[in-house]
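@channel anyone free to eyeball this complex?
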Amino acid sequence: MGHMRLRVLGVVAAALMLAVACGSSSSGGNTKQVKVGLVTDTGGLNDKSFNHLAYVGLQSAISKLGIKGDVIESKSGDDYVPNLTNFAQKGYDLVIGNGFLMQPAIGTVAAQFPNIKFAIVDGAGTDAKFNDLKQTNVMDLFFKEQESGALVGAIAGLLEKQSKAPKNTHVISAVGGVKIPPVDHYLAGYQWAAKIYDPSIKVLIGYSNDFNATDKCKAVANTQIGQGSEFVFQVAGGCGVGALQAAGQAHVYSFGVDADQKDADPSVIASALKKVDVAVYDAIKSVVDGKFTGGANRFSLANDATGYQVDNFSLPADIKTEVDNLAAAMKSGSKTPPDVVS
Amino acid sequence: MLPRFSGLAVPLGSVLFAFVAGGLIVLISGANPIDAYQGLLCGVGLLCAGGENPALELSTTIVFLTPLITAGVAVAIPFRAGLFNIGAEGQLLVGTVACLVVGISLSSLPGIVLVPLELLAGMAAGAAWAGIAGVLKATVGAHEVVTTIMLNYVAQWLVRYLIIGGPLQAPGAFSASSPISVNGRLPTFFPASNSLIVFGLPSSVYRVHTGLIIALVAAAVFAFLLWRTSLGYEIRAVGQSQKAARYAGVSVPRTIIVTMLIAGAFAGLAGAIQIAGVDKQLTDKYFNDTTGFDAIAVALLGLGSAVGIVLAALLFGALHAGGAVMQSDAGLSSNLVLVLQALILFSIAGNFVGQISRLIPGLRAPPTLPSELPPAAPLMTEAAAPPPETA
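replying in thread with the prediction:
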């Protein structure tokens, strides 16, 4: 019996070897080619959100700039330092970390490899207490998320004001992941704009304290819907898909975040965009062009990196005009959304 | 067939099976299995073809495997007593919290005093956490699988509370605590310097720390406790048959409680080692930490023996560290690494559970004995048995 099993294993192993021998590929190439490594956070590439967008940016750099690009997904926070180090030790020209929570890891690895260039979405290289180390080899890619949050907040406010919401309760809500600046920027803009267009509106804000577990966001959203909310804005990455689903099941509207999330749930009437792909592409291009500089880079409406997208909904033309006017006002600087939740 | 040989053939065979099956899946997914497994070997410092530094990869693997050894022991001890400790994760988490609190509040103490205090605090917290499940099992017969799973949730949410708006949240930080001071950290084998070059890289990249020695000592203590002490005899006796143990004068409730206390101490130690050796602070990573669950697989794959646990932890550490290499060099999806891990577990649990469960209680028994044991898994049946009478 044991011999039988061994024999089967042997046959399978032999078949495998044969298949490999036939299919072996040769690799190698241009030594001058710029090499870029992307490390995702724990959301993974299939988060339909900012990790996915970072990958889109990398792919477009591969096709347009002819770079070599590789990706490592982080399965837990344990992986940040080893994954960043993996690219750095191999002499990659640029190592990109994705996400606010990766900041201390970037700070550590960037200090160990001063000759390697780093970029981080939503953050900077920091110490364990999240103090910016102001490293010259780290490019910080920040976004004015408050602009995108304001645009979907304006849609909610205008629909409530014009009595075009499902029940016109004048209650809207948002589900944040963890209370960190990039999340709160969105929420602050959302809150601010909704109140401009509907002063009587009540904005409920809750946090799931998680970016990955959909059930946690679903629970927060359901509580808010129970309190009368009829627009649920998710700002919680993969977790937030649960908030969108909760809105769908309760037949109220929802807003997606970062990427266009119209496919995540039919209840998504618009998405607040944060074009991480633009930022990642720009960072890679700066290395290819030899123009890389450390420090803060801010992405906003001004460089078409924030905005909104109407999804499973036909937005009345007058509302769309109002929202576009707000976008123009924020772009010109005549209106400035806050970046702190009030 | 020689029982000693079959004891090794089962885990090795299932790992081999999983690797071959995994290789076929890699092939189907369009990548090269040789590249993929080369990445895996690179995790233990062999055959790094993609430009990785073998010493660094080995260091990373050791960092990953260290907590798995101690947590694996925390699962293996209750197995011997017929208890299934699913709660190593929760016990590990309270261990991290206790270690951190001691490390921060007594930060003025010299390292030679502070580090042992941190580790002891972690062990005490883990023991107390597992002790709850042990006392409930021994007194009212509450099934330890249920109670330890529930205690995992309590611990996870406790950590969330503590570092998100709770008392341990660092000012200015988000979902993270303050770090423990430098003297509260386990020494690393290499100085944490960015300018000293060791094996071609700054020495600070090698995070391998003295927690490895503690973990190996813990595994040795486990083996000694189990085979060379009367307590170990009692634990094994209770695991084989509670009725027989009671007849022989062993207090079953007392043994259950003591077993869980010891197991929790090992899991808490794993958590303390992680804080004092690697992480220095509590972060959001502990919300989704799976060390305590991986430890169950490690304990099973290691057949509940000290050497087996160390080897199984090495495999899991290499899978973890090599996973990054497999992704960057072979272009594999990170999910494929998890598929491989799952395949290993599946091949053990699916094909060989009967053999393994016969092996665990009877590993040192004379060759003639196993055939006389009941065919069903004593490990499972004892765990599912009605509560012991407390009289």
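from a first look: The radius of gyration of chain A is 23 Å.
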